From TrEMBL:
This is LPXTG-motif cell wall-anchored protein. Keywords: Membrane, Signal, Transmembrane, Transmembrane helix. The chain crosses the membrane at residues 347-370. Residues 1-29 form the signal peptide.
Length: 379
């Protein structure tokens, strides 16, 4: 007769059976959980070439004692929008034959250069280890590109584009035109020197121009240099102006009447503005300015001993002009204060008019207003 089994012994048997079952699960499941591949990826824009650069890293995991592996499947694709294309990544490829070229302990790193239009890249691998275990599925990773990847343009050097032109005018002065080209990327700095002590520095911004006038007395030797340019832009004596037309000559006249000393100036339309100051020895001076195409008059009250001196820029003759009493002045006329005044009648009036006309014709004087304003006033 067999004794009944102890409850403790029964529990021990159940526990032992469970342990044996768990051991079996571990034995058969361990290879599946211990063998796998892991993919990582990052990307940057290479501004030197305008390309995306994806860096792929593959790590292998296997149980102790498994040292090497190989890839039995590799699939790489790139996308532009929804359009996919097959791609290749150097260093990550299928290995044919019995070799296992990759060490489990070492990560595989490979770079892939992609066109700037690429919007997505993917990589999938399946590994086989040297113990014969094959990964149970493809391991995959993808990366999407956003933003713009463009080639960085080299900085444009700051460069001026200076030019100069020199032209003389009919007065002998010289105009130097300084320009800085529209494609310039920096201001142009000029120095203009002339005969004597003439010197001027000018800065012209890109796309602009400036002019400098060199007086005739300094224009016999002109030199134009620009900073950064080895040779002068101009050096020497500018050519004389051509087809110059002399300005018209103003006409001046004066006359003595019984009551006034009168000065008339007539300036032709092709003349230059004339300014003359008339200074009497008795009374206040008067200044007359006459523009081209116009005329002007200055009068002084007649009196014994009156003289008027004309003066102007370049006026050669500044001899005082005296009032001279006409011979046919009626008593009381002609600047005298003691003679009784008598009425003018009949032929006397006509004689005065005729005499005035003769004096006017005799008193006409020309004075020149040329480039140097060498004006001569003669009676």
């Amino acid at each position: 007769m067999n004794p009944p089994k102890s409850p403790i012994r029964r529990l021990a048997a159940i526990a032992a059976g469970a342990l044996i079952g768990l051991a079996g699960v571990v034995t058969f499941a361990a290879p599946a959980s211990a063998h796998h591949s892991e993919i990582k990826v990052k990307a940057d824009c290479d501004t030197a070439t305008g390309e995306w650069v994806a860096t792929w890293t593959v790590n292998s995991f296997a149980p102790r004692g498994v040292d090497n592996y190989k890839f039995t499947e590799v699939s790489a694709k790139t996308y532009v929008g929804k359009t996919a294309s097959d791609a290749a990544i150097d260093g990550i490829a299928v290995t044919e034959g019995k070799e296992y070229p990759h060490a489990v302990s070492d990560a595989i790193t490979a770079t892939q250069r992609l066109d700037a239009k690429t919007t997505k890249a993917t990589l999938s691998v399946r590994a086989m280890w040297d113990n014969g275990f094959v990964d149970d599925k493809l391991r995959s990773k993808s990366i999407e590109f956003s933003g713009t990847c463009a080639k960085e343009q080299p900085p444009v050097p700051a460069t001026p584009k200076p030019t100069a032109s020199v032209a003389a005018d009919c007065d002998g002065d010289v105009v130097v035109k300084l320009e800085n080209g529209k494609d310039a990327t920096a201001p142009a700095k000029f120095t203009i020197t002339g005969a004597g002590d003439f010197s001027e520095k000018v800065t012209v911004t890109a796309g602009e121009s400036k002019s400098v006038k060199v007086p005739a007395k300094n224009a016999t030797a002109i030199k134009v240099v620009a900073k950064g340019v080895d040779k002068p832009l101009f050096e020497g004596t500018p050519a004389a102006a051509e087809n110059c037309v002399e300005p018209g000559e103003p006409a001046g006249s004066y006359k003595s009447t019984c009551t006034e000393l009168i000065f008339d100036i007539a300036n032709p339309a092709d003349g230059k503005t004339v300014t003359i100051t008339f200074t009497p020895n008795k009374g206040e001076a008067q200044t007359l300015t006459v523009e081209p195409g116009k005329s002007g008059t200055v009068t002084f009250p007649a009196q014994e001993g009156l003289t008027v001196t004309p003066s102007a820029e370049g006026l050669d003759d500044t001899t005082p002009i005296a009032w001279e009493k006409p011979a046919d002045c009626a008593p009381g006329q002609g600047g005298g204060k003691d003679e009784p005044a008598l009425p003018l009648t009949g032929a006397a009036t006509g004689g005065i008019i005729a005499g005035a006309a003769v004096l006017l014709a005799a008193g006409v004087a020309l004075f020149m207003v040329a480039r140097r304003r060498r004006v001569r006033f003669t009676a």
